[in-house]
Amino acid sequence: MPVTMPHDLPARAILESEKIFVMSAERAGRQDIRPMRIAILNLMPTKVATETQLLRLLSNTPLQIEITLLHMSSHVSQNTSAAHLEAFYSTFDEVADEHFDGLIITGAPIERLAFEDVDYWPEMTRVLDWTRTNVQSTLHVCWGAQAALYHHYGVGKFEVPKKISGVFSHRLTGAKSPVVTGFDEEFLAPHSRHTDVHAADVEATGAVDVLAISDEAGVFLAATPDGRQVFVTGHPEYDADTLSLEYARDVAQQAAVAAPAHYFPGDDPTAVPLNRWRGHGHLLYTNWLNYCVYQETPFDLA
């Protein structure tokens, strides 16, 4: 939310240069305020857990937010009951004529498939095209980020020799964006995926800036300069035990699986992991809501 202060206060110019949202008392008095309409296209098989993780991050703001949960009508969920989807979710076709302030497109454990081989890819491309006209800003997560970079800009993904799984150190690239306001120059974030994108390919689009990168996990955060599209290849929304649960699942399916890197204390898979990325996860989503959605979206969405 903005800080209201006099025009001639010395701190004002400094804060404005740092992209801090400030306004005069006159403008504050004329403010019309309404709830932000945020949709979540939940592609994860563990839909309830993902709902909870994302809503926790979205709730850490003074903004009033109305949530619309979406699922793909062209895909039958194997892990979420039809009753849950019927009660709480809409399909894309049901909202295609509506406008939203923001949209979050989650990841999905399908990154080894070619995009065109995903059963709901045609519907996914319709959603991605729709975001350009009906959504102020879209936050793409993990596979959702790779899918959008591929569809919008032709950025291909490649399979890595070993799954990128763990909690990795990242550094800011120096590219200017309000999305990273308040970030430490080095910070931690979880990743869990079998594919990656090249930072050079993202930069070569001429339309997307790489904002944060890891020597071990590659690109973490990228965005268009106008904030209309934000791409997060990791999972800052993960709970402390999410990687542990994924590791147990993978071990059950395939014995020779490496434990998530830099995750378990002392690299001991029997130890209880700590959440060391929560602060930057909240900051990322708060910055997105503030700078890319709230400050930019029109009052009349239509």
TrEMBL record:
Signal peptide (residue range): none
Pathway: Amino-acid biosynthesis; L-methionine biosynthesis via de novo pathway; O-acetyl-L-homoserine from L-homoserine: step 1/1
Molecular function GO terms recorded: homoserine O-acetyltransferase activity; homoserine O-succinyltransferase activity
Subcellular location field: Cytoplasm
Family label: Belongs to the MetA family.
Matches recorded under PANTHER family: HOMOSERINE O-SUCCINYLTRANSFERASE
Protein name: Homoserine O-acetyltransferase
Source organism of this protein record: Gordonia neofelifaecis NRRL B-59395
